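Researcher: Hi, I'm a grad student and pretty new to this. My advisor asked me to get structures for two proteins we've been looking at. I'm not sure of the right format, so I'll just paste the first sequence and hope you can take it from there.
Model: That works fine. Here's the first sequence with its structure tokens right after it:
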Amino acid sequence: RFFCYDVFISQGVYMFKIRNAYIADASVIYDIWSKGWQYAYKNILSQGFLEKRVGSDAVREKIEKFPEKLNKEKTKGNIFLVLLDDDKIIGFVSGGAPNSSECAADGELDMLYLDTNYIGKGVGKFLFQHFAKEMKQRGKKTFGLMCFSDNKSIGFYKKMGGRVTVERPSGEKFEYTMASFLEFDIDDVLKK
């Protein structure tokens, strides 16, 4: 499936396409993911942790396992979409069925990452709302997501209607960094 959109945002007009992710997209997806982690979490998580979590070895492993991950997502009926500016992938979003114990919502957004050159230009809002629209088409009314409490993007999520329902330390896996679980009403998100 391909969706094409003319998107008007404050910095001009972009022609975006959204489509399902393909196995061949893995290296671009995980390059964006790695750079996104480094950008967003450089002042939240230690440099050693980031190198281990999103360094070149971790990226290579994610790319190798991507065919299995993508197949698993499709089997579950989950969403895994890429956003293109012309023919260049500039972001992606995935999620669907709830997978966190804190999630009392109908669904859950697992990942949303953008090429860092597009951050702050309205592109994230566009991709976030498209995810909400996809969830609504699947009969969902709400979804949630987990975000580090000190991540600057939590302000974006609150502007999009997110309500913090749980805040807790993330545990040893993420250096005990405080994490917030936010829930969204899909109709609210689509009105923003």
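Researcher: Oh nice, that was easy. Here's the second one.
Model: And its structure:
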Amino acid sequence: MVNEVLAHTDLPLKDSIELYNTTAGTIDISGWFISDATSNYKKFEIPTTTTLSAAGFIVFDEDD
């Protein structure tokens, strides 16, 4: 689930998105895509072997 989005930031903050696993098990999110552009839904691919633990969080920022 998309838990938080920080957009249109001013330095030193960075635009970021936080994903949250609402389940009781680990989820492999390798190969999922995140984008802020309707013209390119595959703008950023989550790296291979990326997992999200049960009730865990992961954050990606504009540097990713």
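Researcher: Is there anything I should tell my advisor about the second?
Model: You could mention this: The chain is about 0% helix and 35% strand.
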